[in-house]
Design brief:
- The chain has about 300 residues and is mainly alpha-helical.
- The protein has 12 helices and no strands.
- α3 packs antiparallel against α4 and α3 packs parallel to α5.
Length: about 300
């Protein structure tokens, strides 16, 4: 597994250095990687923790705008400083996630969905009225620092971090919250702390994805991060199957390729997305993987509940 990961990075690095990959194909691959980060991070909250957040586009927007601001206005416009800008975008998104999680998780049931839906509208309105971020016209001057090797590293890192969290003691607390929050409290799981921290981690990676996205397309505006973007992320999550990492990867890859293949439909392809989500929930509620995880993502001591 380790050799495959190193080989993948080497291939991406060579393609970047010698410009070997077709530009269109490389861009699609980078979109897939960014969408995998978004889907895997949302899976931590919606899949493993059992809550229902629809505000991932807002955290992506904050990460995109913050990373762009740092790369354009704070740090010299040099690709060497791009990782710092990207990290700053993730931190800003995580901070917003914390500010939302603290009051949101005081409520129960479906209130998180309502609060995060409102967050998308608030974020979009704020960005449209901030002149130093370009207002409704969008943010300009962003350099194309996102490349194949960078997306590859960020994607692998996000997958491995989420995977390690899920199979840690903290991850068991997350799953306990999903299965029965009252019982989790009774066995000394600090459910409020678990939910807040999981939400913050999820927001951080959404911010990283937003920074990569902004420095790939080199232009962002508030309309890019509307409820339609959150719908796309939700569809990718439930297409592959929530509660599994491999499901998030498959859902992101399949949906990214499919929505690109449907480009000839024009604006109607965005009508296709919510309709597909409804049909998916009716006919395949568990997604492609149906709750099954790829064995390579399962630690040996967790495999079949036996230590090996």
């Amino acid at each position: 597994m380790g050799l495959l990961l190193v080989a993948g990075f080497a291939a991406a690095f060579v393609c970047d250095t010698f410009n070997l990959a077709d530009q269109y194909l490389a861009q699609i691959i980078m979109y897939i990687g960014i969408n995998v980060i978004l889907t895997v991070s949302l899976n931590l909250v919606n899949g493993y923790m059992g809550e229902f957040s629809v505000g991932h586009a807002a955290f992506m927007a904050v990460g995109a705008y913050a990373a762009s601001f740092f790369s354009v206005s704070v740090f010299p416009q040099n690709p060497a400083f791009f990782p710092l800008s990207l990290f700053a975008g993730g931190i800003c998104a995580a901070f917003l996630g914390f500010m939302i999680a603290v009051p949101a998780f005081r409520a129960r049931d479906d209130y998180l969905a309502i609060i995060t839906l409102a967050l998308i509208m608030i974020t979009k309105s704020v960005l449209e009225n901030l002149p130093w971020f370009g207002g409704p016209q969008g943010y300009h001057g962003i350099q194309k620092y996102t490349n194949l090797s960078g997306v590859y590293l960020c994607t692998i890192a996000s997958i491995m971090v989420i995977r390690n969290i899920v199979y840690s003691n903290f991850g068991r607390g997350i799953i306990a919250v999903r299965d029965d929050e009252v019982a989790a409290n009774l066995v000394s799981v600090d459910t409020k702390q678990v939910k807040i921290l999981a939400f913050v981690i999820s927001s951080f990676f959404a911010g990283i994805a937003g920074g990569l996205f902004a420095h790939l397309i080199q232009f962002i505006n508030p309309r890019t991060f509307s409820i339609l973007k959150s719908t796309d992320i939700l569809l990718m999550l439930y297409l592959g199957g929530s509660g599994t990492i491999i499901g998030s990867i498959l859902g992101a890859a399949i949906w990214t390729v499919l929505i690109e293949a449907l480009r000839f439909l024009g604006i109607w392809r965005f009508v296709f997305a919510p309709v597909a989500l409804v049909m998916l929930m009716i006919y395949r509620p568990l997604g492609i993987m149906g709750g099954r995880e790829w064995r390579l993502f399962i630690p040996k001591e967790n495999d079949h509940g036996r230590k090996k």
